[in-house]
Amino acid sequence: MNHEPKNLTDALWRIYNRPDPPPLWQGGGNLPWNDPDFSARMLREHLDESHGAASRQSAERAAQLDWLWERLDLRPGSRVLDLTCGPGLYAVPLAGRGADVTGVDFGPASIGHARQLAERKGVGDRCRFVEADVRDYEPEPEAYDAAIFLYGQLAVFPRHEAAALLAKAAGALQLGGRLVVELLDPARVDKKDSSWWYTDDSGLWGDRPFLHLGERRWNAAEQTSVERFYILHLETGAMDEIVLCDQTYEAEEMTGMMRAAGFREVESFTAWAGLPLYDAAEWIVYIAQR
Ligand SMILES: C[S@@+](CC[C@H](N)C(=O)[O-])C[C@H]1O[C@@H](n2cnc3c(N)ncnc32)[C@H](O)[C@@H]1O
């Protein structure tokens, strides 16, 4: 993602000559979660209780965990697979309730935090955290009673990868097991083109002064939101370019994909069925049963 232009002028010409709109799925279409420095900076955001942008705040997670525990029919001894588990903020409390949890994520700082948190909470023996790309990870077949894929992460993959991930989750569940997938409600997605900029001394994009230039485009044909960020590191002239795609799905399409992946029943809940989350209205939660 780092283009190391020779100087600021190179960086500005690169921005000037950018393709508009940004090519879909350029560079993978995801944030650089697995870059160690980015991962360390992102961990601060996950743990920052003043906002819910990376992980929801603890009171909201508690409400979600109660809801998930009941809807997934979990009990002590249930085996749960948490795909894109982040720093373990769901996995560890689920283990605290007696579940045996496997969390998979490719963010090194997040996985490190999840392991430490599990030890600190005395549930290290009921948690296993795997640092891996979920697309490469091969779960043991039919080894789980439930799987969770929260906070919209299935949408950062193109359709064919999302379909493969759903099939993988189905294969990991025993018959009757349930998968929860949280996806943006397409009716609520911002479809207006926009652009913005800001400067900061340090933050998610770097620990030294940077200029962030961002733009968002809606690709109507593919029903995909595309954001492109240019991060200009002011002391060095180095520039990062990141394209983040969010594939949206109408409920019928997602339900069809889940059935094609091997799930018999699919229920959907708009706005988290009324749970008091700050952004509940943005989401549809699917529960698919094998
Ligand atoms: C918005 S965070 C949500 C984390 C967690 N589910 C939560 O709500 O606290 C998205 C997570 O997805 C992970 N992720 C994104 N793409 C991934 C991939 N291809 N393989 C593994 N993890 C991925 C990131 O590292 C990050 O931890």
Average of per-residue pLDDT values: 96
Number of beta-strand segments: 11
Distinct helical segment count: 7
Query: Which small-molecule ligands are present, each listed once?
Result: S-adenosylmethionine
* Principal-axis shape: globular
CATH architecture of the largest domain: 3-Layer(aba) Sandwich
Q: What is the top-level CATH class of the largest domain?
A: Alpha Beta
Q: What structural category do the secondary elements indicate?
A: alpha/beta
How much helical structure, as a percent, in the residues?
A: 25-40%
Distance between the termini: 39 Å
What's the gyration radius in Å? Answer: 19 Å
Within the CATH hierarchy, at the fold level, what is the topology of the largest domain?
Rossmann fold
Characterize the largest beta sheet: strand count, sense, and whether it forms a barrel.
7 strands, mixed
Overview of the molecule:
By secondary structure, the chain is α/β, with parallel strands linked by helices. The chain has two domains: about 10-30 and about 190-245; about 40-185 and about 250-290, Vaccinia Virus protein VP39 (Rossmann fold). The chain is built from seven helices and eleven strands. A seven-stranded mixed β-sheet has the order 3-2-1-4-5-11-10, sandwiched between helices. A four-stranded antiparallel β-sheet has the order 6-7-8-9, covered by helices on one side. Helix 4 (about 90-95) links the parallel strand 1 and strand 2. Helix 2 crosses helix 5. It is globular and about 60 Å long. The mean pLDDT is about 95. S-adenosylmethionine binds near residues 54, 85 and 106. S-adenosylmethionine binds near residues 86, 107, 110 and 150.
